[in-house]
Amino acid sequence: MSKVVVTGGAGFIGHHLVKALHERGDKVIVIDNLAGGRFDGRVVTGVEMSAYDIADPENEHLLLDDFAGADYVVHLAALPRVQASIEDPVGTARVNVLGTVAVLNAARKAGVKRVVFASSSSVYGDSDQLPLHEDMPTEPMSPYARHKVQGEEYCRDYAVLFNVETVCLRFFNVYGPGADPNGAYALVVAKFLEQKRNGEKMTITGDGEQTRDFTHVRDVVRAILLAAESPEVGMGEAINIGGGRQISVNTVADLIGGKTVYIESRLEPHDTLADIRKAKRLLNWEPQISFEEGIEELKSLNSD
Predict the structure, then answer these.
(1) Can you list the domains of the chain with their CATH numbers?
(2) Is 144 a catalytic residue?
(3) How far apart (Å, rounded) are the C-alpha atoms in residues 110 and 80?
(4) Sign of CA dihedral 55, 58, 60, 63
(5) How high is the mean pLDDT of the chain?
(6) Which of 52, 72, 124, 144 does the annotation list as catalytic?
(7) 68: helix, coil or strand?
(8) Which of 5, 171, 193, 222 is surrounded by the fewest CB atoms within 10 Å?
């Protein structure tokens, strides 16, 4: 049995991860400042919940208490929306950058074995070269994406300077049960499902031919678990976690089914596609849930 601390554990990915950790018998502590809501509905019986701001220096003693004796820390906590980072670059940088440094520093002081950092495919920007691979230069198009680049750099710094094992997982368009349908840059699958449930037309930006590489949340959880324990990583490696397929927004709407309406395009990469060879080599990971299977599951849940 391991002790695992999950920052942002009340969020979408965090909830699925915490449930998986608890089911396999690990001792789990969730840290979440509840910026994304409440613990209600995402409480896993037997899991300790701590509600505080990890980026506040006054809370370092709380981090150290929670990290004491931990084998792994999975750092998911962030303000994850691109638009929010554009509207409030200072506030989001405080959470996304200083919060990451606070987690790494507490892990160093507490003697945590490894930190798994949740990065993002947004670090690549709008590249014409596909598939996107980890040796490409990062070209962030928003403060949020830049925060993730900086988080990865700090992870490498702490691995080299302080011998804190770290690994950075670049998630590609995570979807699945419990995803947030709200916000200007809401997750498209969750947004479409909510619109359909409400009898509304699904809103497609631009011509809908932009593509995304979708990754089911349970595949993401499996990648996190492997990254926490793989002997092949620990020096801040950046690793793509994606489905390895390009799927257009129009195709997403077709699979969900229903009426659509096209609206003005927005600032975002036109296409994403993950090269996942590094994940296969270092983590022995590849996706197991096809997008079609994932959508069918969500449609079934959405009709209940």
Answers:
(1) 3-174+215-242+273-283 (3.40.50.720), 175-212+246-271+289-303 (3.90.25.10)
(2) yes
(3) 27
(4) negative
(5) 93
(6) 144
(7) coil
(8) 222
